[in-house]
Amino acid sequence: MNIIDVMDTRLPPALPAGHHAEKGPRLWGTAPRDGGPWHREFLTRCETALGLEAIDLWFAGLRAGLIVVGLSWRTLAPDWTRAPQLPILAMFLVFSIGLYLLNAVRPGRIAMLYRVALVFDLGLVFLLVRITGGFASEFHLGFTLLIAVHAFYFGLATGLGVAAASGVLYALAGDWPPPMPAFAIRIAFDALVGACLGVLAEHKRRQGELLRQQQEQLAHFDRVVTVGELAAGLAHELRNPLAGISGALHVLSGQYESGAEQHVLLSDVQAQIARMNKTLSDLLQLARPRAPQLTVVDVNTLLSHSLRFVAQNGVEVVPQLKRDLPPLLADANLLHQAFLNILVNARQAMPQGGRLTIRTRLQEEAGGWAVAVEISDTGIGIPPEHRARIFQPFFTTKAQGTGLGLPIAARIIEQHGGRIAVDSAAGHGTTFRITLPSPRIGPGAAVGVQDHAIESAGS
After folding, report:
1. How far apart, in whole angstroms, are the C-alpha atoms of residue 371 and residue 454?
2. CA angle, corner 116, sides to 115 and 122, nearest 5?
3. CA distance 194 to 149
4. In whole angstroms, how far apart are CA 167 and each of 146, 151, 179, 181?
């Protein structure tokens, strides 16, 4: 577990339409969180007691209202053969009560219960239409209501499916031939209701997911800033003592011969201090990234320079660098660090050796031209469950890793207005794709400044 995991306060992932998270217990008599009026308090208590959300309570109220309307219709209708019969209304009432009682006993399954209830409701409307006049029955509106409710709740596919089922049942509910064009208009209208409400429900769901993702990104950014400030303070306080300890150890090791056990031990301690110092430097850079010092840089030369710092024992390096690429306006030191972090990560993914391929090319972007860099290895790959977290600070699967190399590389690429993406499959290697915008710079201005930038990167 790393620091980000400890501080993880992300919102729960978006649920598909029609699925609801179970709510925790809430004491009766406590005020609602938003301090709303009494009716909101009442709704909150009902949600807790029945394991329902607000929309489910609205559906429960709709079923209760249909029962009241049915009783009123039976009382007021002049033609008794066209009014709902009491046994049908009683069956609908018992089924509705049982539906919500079952969800209260075993909460979290309301969406599945609604699908079961849909079959019952379609059969009930079919029966009502059949016994109250067939194609002349006003109860055909029950099909329209079922289509609208389920398209809104489940989405477009379910809405169209219910519309199709309703059309078949309505066609079977009356004596043929059906009245035209009234029959066709009703079928088409029901399909249109399912399509329109389904599209609106899908759009609303996508908007909700997008909003939740933005909230998660904002929460993640806040956590990174908090951890970064904490890390920067710790790094600043620890680097000076480490430097003093390292100097003292260097003096002590000079008092022993190079092969002595004490000299070897002190050298190992100094190596560990150097590793700690590098980690602190990475923390500082992640927390307080410096602004890029832009110069004209040739990306092929910079990549070749970065490759010199990567151990290549047992690894075949395959450079496929396109010639005559336009120069970049970038900070050579920062880009060198970004490339080096990715190259080292690729090399470490191939402990038994393999092939490291570096490709560059020119590609057209919406705002102009960009230089694309691909760094591919034939290593162990990245498992799917880790792929979304590799650019998250402090996330690592390595025993000696800090989880800062790739986040720093991504930060540097973003500072230069670029993008970084990764494609990987466990056991089939990994490819990092970097895209950096290329300004329109004349070739005569590139050579002198570029050489100075590359020298700075190696210093």
Report:
1. 18
2. 85
3. 9
4. 12, 15, 14, 14
Contact present, 436 and 373 (Cβ < 8 Å): yes
How many helices (H) and strands (E) in the chain?
14, 7
Phi first, then psi: give them for residue 347, nearest 5 degrees: -65, -40
Q: What is the per-residue pLDDT across 252-295, written as a single tens digit (0 to 9) for each? A: 888 888 878 888 888 888 888 887 877 777 777 766 677 888 99
What are the tens digits of pLDDT across the range 387-441? 888 887 777 877 667 778 888 898 899 989 999 999 988 788 999 999 999 876 4
Domain residue extents for the chain: 3-214, 295-458
- Strand-pair partners of 421: 433
Residue 310 has φ and ψ, to the nearest 5°, of -105, 125
Over residues 212-235, the pLDDT tens digits come to 888 887 887 777 677 667 766 777
- Tell me how far apart the alpha carbons of residues 370 and 16 are, in angstroms, rounded to a whole number: 38
* Cα–Cα distance measured from residue 322 to residue 325, given in angstroms and rounded to the nearest whole number: 7
326 pLDDT higher than 70: yes
* pLDDT, tens digit (0-9, with 9 covering 90-100), for 331-386: 999 999 899 999 998 998 898 889 999 999 998 877 778 999 999 999 988 888 88
Class for the domain spanning 295-458: alpha beta
Please tell me the predicted confidence (pLDDT) of residue 310.
85
SS3 at position 20: coil
| Contact predicate 402/351, CB 8 Å | no
Asked if the bond preceding 383 is cis, omega within 30° of 0, the reply is no
Instruction: Name all contacts of 197-201 with Cβ < 8 Å and 24+ positions apart.
Output: 197/147, 197/148, 197/151, 197/152, 197/159, 198/151, 198/152, 198/155, 198/156, 198/157, 198/158, 198/159, 198/160, 199/156, 200/152, 201/17, 201/151, 201/152, 201/153, 201/154, 201/155, 201/156, 201/159
Strand order in the sheet with 315-321: 315-321, 354-365, 368-377, 430-437, 419-424
What are the phi and psi torsion angles at 392 (to 5°)? -85, 130
Q: Is 296 in contact with 442 (CB distance < 8 Å)?
A: no
Q: What are phi and psi of 180, to 5 degrees?
A: -110, 145
55-96 pLDDT per residue, tens: 777 788 888 888 888 778 777 766 655 566 678 788 888 888
d(CA 88, CA 242): 83
- Token pair 């020119």: residue: 362
Helix, strand, coil tally for the chain in percent (to 5)? 60, 10, 30
